[in-house]
Every structure is written in structure tokens, then in C-alpha cells.
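Q: What would this chain look like folded?
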Amino acid sequence: MHRLDLVDPGNGEPEPCVLVLARSSDMEMNELSIALAERGVRMARIDIDRCLDVSLTVYPDAPLVELDRWILRPLLVWRRHFELAALPVDPATLYGAYVTDQWRSVADWITNRADWSQVNSLATGRQPDRLTQLSDAAMFGLRTPRTVVTTRPARHRPGGASCVVKTSGRHLIEPSSGVQHGLFPRPLDPRRGIGSPEPAPVIVQQYVHADHELRVFVVGERLIAYRVDKQDPAQLWVDPDAVDVRAVDIPAALGTTLLALTRFWRLDVAAFDLLMTDGEPVFLEVNINCDWRWFERRCAEPTGSASAPVSSAVASWVAERFGQLRQG
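A: My prediction, written as C-alpha cells:
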């Protein structure tokens, strides 16, 4: 957006900016760049899937970045969807392994540097693993499904006959740049043989019968919740048009607990997934690289409303945090 002169390019002095490490299909960051430009905040961006020809210089002895022809002073850094698998190289080749390793090292350094603030400073884009999330949520008083991690799902059924199998890692894998495969939760087939193995450990959880699901976005101290009604755990990905989404308020006690967990994990923008069963919340996971535009659009479709509360809250939070850092 700064190239369209929506933000004054300055007088040769290093330009304070928000620096985002993302990928080209990150529509939330596309929208954020426009919203920040309207507030007079410059946002610079490095996309992992189109970075091979980028002109980038980072100065270790000063908190400055030269990106293309701009000398920038990042005040706030946000790493989202900056997955090394999206690099358009073959990591099995010497060149690909070299490029991947360099970007890994430099991106990790940028998102751990103390000269500038981070969004979600605990993980700098790497969320606490799913098992740690479960134990921490239980420590804060939230109910969690009974869970085991195993390479023999058929032998270990914490919920008896009804269980759900989930990946212990990311929900999406990218075997080659631009080709993503979803690893969706699936019911454990009760007909599966006792000895049928998995090639890697997976999460097996008790199946919890729920009235509906909740997706709760936390932006700073603000909570924005959506009720999600779907037929099976994977429907959000495989048949999204059949999913019903409505904006809702959540109980005050639940909101207090989610904010406490957010502070404990040092998160600024995140999304909680919970089940509601007989009025009681059951914690499933927290997602740091959370995408909210789909929920806003899906919620607005029946009424034709253009409301985008999460997008607005994120833009306001980033702009306010940027202003605080600039003044400080």
C-alpha cells in the first residue's frame, strides 16, 4: 500500500513500520495492510512463497531493515503462515536445502530479536503444542477430552468405542510449494484391527457429544465469539457451505478464563476452539495463526451484513500498539 502513496514515503529517514512475515495467500494480512494504510501506518511484508528475488538487508547492529528501496524501522513484527515448505524450491537438492536453511535462520532471528516487539511474543508464530495446550487449559479449570498419543490408535480408546483421531502436529502439510493437504480430525473406525498402526504418533481423543462448537477470537483484551454448527469435525474444511455460523456472546466466566490463558501464553491475537455440551465448555485447542475472514463472511451471509468485527479489532489493536511503540 505504501507504493500507492496511501502512506507518505517519508523524507529519507528510516520509516517506522509493522513488519509481517506471511505468504501471498494470507488474505487477513492483505486486508490489514489496507486498514493500517487508512490509519497512516506503514506495513511491510515478506511472503515466504515469493521471497527468492526479494531485495532484503537486515542490519544486526541497528533495528533497521532495507526492503526493496525502503529503509524501514520495524516496531512490531508479526509472523503468520510463514511456512518454509511454501518456499518454491526443492529441499532435496543442495540449492533448495541451502535456501530453506538460510530463510529458517534469518526468519527465526527476526522473530526473536529484542529490538522490536512481536505479536504473540511467546511463540513468534509457533504456538504451544496441542498437548501442552490441553494440560494448561485443564490447569486453568477448563474441561478437556480424555486424550492419548499413540501409534496404535485401535488399541487405545480413551473414550471407549467413540473416539476422534487428530494430528499431533499441524492441520495442513505442504509436500511441495503451493500444494497443501489437510489432516482433518476423523472418527476412529471401530472395525479397525487392533494391530493397525500409524507411521507416526497421533492424538486419540474421547468423542464429546456437543450441542455446538465455539470459535472465540481474542484480540488484545477483546473477545469475539461465533457459534459453529456442523455435522462432523472435518466439515469446516470439506463442506464449509453446510456449516452454520452465528455471532454469540459467551458466559463471563468463560471469557475470564480464556483471557487468563491468553495472558499465560503471552498471546495477542488468537482463536480458541471449544465444544459446548450441556452448557459446559470443553477446550479443544488454541490457534495462533488464526484466520477470521471466513467466519465473518459466513456469519454475514444470511443477513447481508458487512460487519467484520474481528478484522476491525485486529486493525485497531495493531495500530494502537504501533502508536504506543512509536511514542516510546
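The chain has a mean pLDDT of 87.
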